[in-house]
Amino acid sequence: MADTPVLRADAIHKRYADNEVLKGISLTLARGETKVLIGPSGSGKSTFLRCLNHLTKPDRGTIELDGVEISDANIDRMRARIGFVFQDFNLFSHLSVLDNVSICPIRVKRQARDEAIRRAREELERVGLGDKADAYPAELSGGQQQRVSIARALAMDPTLMLFDEPTSALDPELTGEVVKVMQRLADDGMTMLVVSHEMGFARQAADEIVFMEGGHIVEQGPPETLFSQPAQDRTRAFLNVIAEHG
Ligand SMILES: Nc1ncnc2c1ncn2[C@@H]1O[C@H](COP(=O)(O)OP(=O)(O)OP(=O)(O)O)[C@@H](O)[C@H]1O
Ligand SMILES: [Mg+2]
């Protein structure tokens, strides 16, 4: 149905021993929406993202993708529909760029090899790396490697894309090329949840900013409101910190 959210996370709880990391996080993403998740180190951003595709299993709460609840029974199928881009790229070092991008469609989706290769080349073009298909990850810059990992996620035709600090391992001059690719994806109507403190990207691409602290969502709203007139003092204090330290 047109108005079923792509993602609905409801009251997600996660604890490690006596550390209650997620204290009931609820978040929805409509089709084509981009939300940027910000918050101090240790606030639970990565844990929340990992819970969404059960890389970490939540203790409580439900997650629906296109109206279907994610469970142990369907997790493999659901996970194949969620693209995940990590801070440290996670490419297979022994595979060429083309093989990195085509391996999941071939192995997981059982796509014909020719078709998967054709699609992989297309996705590499889309991230500006059409000429790097035969290179190995070690021969690429960090920004190029991150764009390969975005192409790899896109080749699976994801319903939803999750990004966990995709530019924080990159030098500033390489950050821009990755941000540009994410910006274009958002403009093209991809549904995205992005943990990032790249404020330029957040302002331009995000429909909403979600500020998390101590396992709670403190505040969320459109960037123009949240950045200039945060309702909560804690949001304001955090924004001052990232404004100073980038
Ligand atoms: N596998 C784990 N085992 C035990 N504790 C964990 C585990 N993963 C995360 N934690 C704890 O959960 C809390 C939240 O961590 P998380 O990585 O989600 O924070 P974050 O907001 O992503 O921080 P950062 O901005 O530094 O990436 C931290 O206190 C962390 O130590
Ligand atoms: Mg993190």
SSE blueprint:
Elements: E1 7-16, E2 19-29, E3 34-38, H1 45-52, E4 60-65, E5 68-69, H2 75-79, E6 82-85, H3 97-107, H4 113-126, H5 142-154, E7 160-164, H6 172-187, E8 192-195, H7 199-205, E9 208-213, E10 216-221, H8 223-228, H9 233-245
Parallel strand pairs: 3-8, 3-9, 6-7, 7-8
Antiparallel strand pairs: 1-2, 1-4, 4-5, 9-10
Helix pairs in contact: 3-4, 3-5, 4-5, 5-6
The chain binds adenosine-5'-triphosphate and magnesium ion (MG).
Compute the number of strand runs: 10
Strand content: 15-25%
Distance between the termini: 40 Å
CATH topology of the largest domain: Rossmann fold
Number of helices: 9
Question: What does this molecule look like?
Answer:
With 246 residues, this protein is of the alpha/beta class. It has helices spanning 45-52, 75-79, 97-107, 113-126, 142-154, 172-187, 199-205, 223-228, 233-245, and strands spanning 7-16, 19-29, 34-38, 60-65, 68-69, 82-85, 160-164, 192-195, 208-213, 216-221. The protein folds into 2 domains: 1-81 and 162-246, P-loop containing nucleotide triphosphate hydrolases (Rossmann fold, 3-Layer(aba) Sandwich); 90-158, no CATH class. It has a 6-stranded mixed beta sheet with strand order 6-7-8-3-9-10, sandwiched between helices. The longest helix has 16 residues, at 172-187. It is globular. The N and C termini lie far apart (40 Å). Bound molecules: adenosine-5'-triphosphate and magnesium ion. Magnesium ion binds next to helix 1. Magnesium ion (MG) binds at residues 45-46, 164.
